[in-house]
Amino acid sequence: MAHPKDLTAAEGQRTAPDAQLVAERAAEALFARDMASRMLGIRVLGVKPGHARLAMTVRPDMVNGHRICHGGLIFTLADSAFAASCNSYGESTVAAAASIDFLAPAFEGDELSAEANELWRSGRSGLYEITVTNQSGERIALFRGRSHRIGGSVSTE
Amino acid sequence: MAHPKDLTAAEGQRTAPDAQLVAERAAEALFARDMASRMLGIRVLGVKPGHARLAMTVRPDMVNGHRICHGGLIFTLADSAFAASCNSYGESTVAAAASIDFLAPAFEGDELSAEANELWRSGRSGLYEITVTNQSGERIALFRGRSHRIGGSVSTE
Amino acid sequence: MAHPKDLTAAEGQRTAPDAQLVAERAAEALFARDMASRMLGIRVLGVKPGHARLAMTVRPDMVNGHRICHGGLIFTLADSAFAASCNSYGESTVAAAASIDFLAPAFEGDELSAEANELWRSGRSGLYEITVTNQSGERIALFRGRSHRIGGSVSTE
Amino acid sequence: MAHPKDLTAAEGQRTAPDAQLVAERAAEALFARDMASRMLGIRVLGVKPGHARLAMTVRPDMVNGHRICHGGLIFTLADSAFAASCNSYGESTVAAAASIDFLAPAFEGDELSAEANELWRSGRSGLYEITVTNQSGERIALFRGRSHRIGGSVSTE
């Protein structure tokens, strides 16, 4: 993830710098503590208010009994992107529910990326859509998550 | 998982022994190849036609940025139980879609178990309900999966 | 729906009479105003705290372009049963989200019933499972709803 | 819905005329038999391969016990748009499952429209996203449907 100081002043002014800083600091705090994403080699490629892009390489220890990437780990990548996007306002927010449609298998060695976009937010609830694609741009899964803001700040959890 | 030979002849006769053997052999074949479940320490406690029970201990490397078990790994446990139950007839079957409701957080050290039950099966499609509970019997998550039979046998994949 | 006064004192004492009265009065208030359920001939067969049973006959004007009952009307029956069960504590509660799996078609003349059961309730949120069956007891659809309590009383809305 | 003959030859050549004719004829055949959509005053505004736009006015007999449009009827509008889009290739296709998130209430007199877009299609399965908005363009609900092609032609069912 680009560090806040990589943003020039001009870029900062163009894109609501405070909101962007909040999003980046929330992601940094969240993923510094996220041992599960680290174990799976999940990387944050970028984050903006309500949006995030993460990546994961399908390792040999990630395949299931059908010799394809375990659906739970595809879900986990998408869920981490969901967390980055729904916590991007700096307020602690967790998943209440999620659904996933598996469109195509992923294989050992595939480079998966997950793009999270906010669909809606109101009160303590939000909806996020995450698309997981492989290195060829083929869609692997569509994930939709419902978030619930629990109070408190991501930075000081 | 209890080995087929642990079943007495009497038990075998009571519970459709061939179907039970098929279920156990399918689970053995499936989990022998399932590197992801192995990486996460997921254990098969039991399997019957259309049913399965699996367990996973929440390790320090399984928590997320909110210091609770990553929802993706709770999903993965449930998804492995789903796989064990929907492949229990010996025919290769994969997840087409799934949804999960997170009811309560799980913490480092928790012993989670996932109980899978078949709700419905028709043609190539099936629906399975998986309940994830912790060591106190508290429900952590409810998972529902839609399966799709792809043809071929689990044993010879 | 049985009127409260149909309950004998003995029955009342057996089953937490106040909670039962609250459930029945909430259903009465709700369905007195529910013009949509009335238009579709939906009847409340019974209600208890967290539970409800409703029925609907598939009329000629309820079929879709495939000459089977329109899935939206099967959903509507289930959704009304969901409303009766999640409002059964007397506090105004609405649907936040729902999902449905269609298991078998329903036909003109079928007598459908929807049985709603509470799966979980915490804070302002709840989960309810509704099973729709036909007159032969065959399952037509499985519906799961997530409720959100909005504050205020069902009786005085 | 625009009748095929309203398309000029030039337009026809620009937009794969055969596929467009198939989509329009499928919608005509489907909605000629769809008594439920007719009962609810649902109108087809337009259809293309994989896409459809429908409308419904919230009548006094469409409100529920909370004096807002019954969620089941919002679902029904979306489900009819789903049917128009997933049957637009002329092959008989039904809903296997669907989920809906309710974002904002709709009120008596509101003019709702449902826009259906195909997300994915493979073999006999497809995924469609339907957005329901009111006359102000406010989003009322997001619907996602999974379709299953059952064989046979829409025109000759």
Question: What does this entry show, briefly?
Answer:
Chain A has 157 residues and is of the alpha+beta class. In chain A, 28% of the residues lie in helices and 39% in strands.
Question: How would you characterize the overall build of this protein?
Answer:
The structure is a homotetramer of 157-residue chains. Chain A has 157 residues and is α+β, with helices and mostly antiparallel strands. The first copy, chain A, has a single domain (14-156), classed as Hotdog Thioesterase (Thiol Ester Dehydrase, Chain A, Roll). Chain A is 28% helix and 39% strand. Chain A has helices spanning 9-14, 17-33, 35-39, 71-86, and strands at 43-48, 51-57, 91-102, 111-122, 125-133, 139-153. The first copy, chain A, has a 6-stranded antiparallel sheet with strand order 1-2-4-5-6-3. The radius of gyration of chain A is 16 Å and the shape is globular. Chain A starts with 8 loop residues before the first helix and ends with a strand. The model of chain A is unreliable at 1-13 (pLDDT under 50). Chains A and B meet through helix 2, helix 3, helix 4 and strand 3 of A and helix 2, helix 3, helix 4 and strand 3 of B.
What average pLDDT do the residues of chain A reach? 92
Distance separating the two termini of chain A: 21 Å
- Number of DSSP helical runs of chain A: 4
Coarse shape of chain A: globular
Count of all domains of chain A: 1
Biggest chain-to-chain interface with counts = A-B, 46 and 46 residues
CATH superfamily of chain A: Hotdog Thioesterase
Major β-sheet profile of chain A = 6 strands, antiparallel
Give the % helix of chain A.
25-40%
Low-confidence spans of chain A: 1-13
What is Rg of chain A?
16 Å
Which structural class should the secondary elements of chain A be placed in? alpha+beta
Beta-strand content of chain A: 35-45%
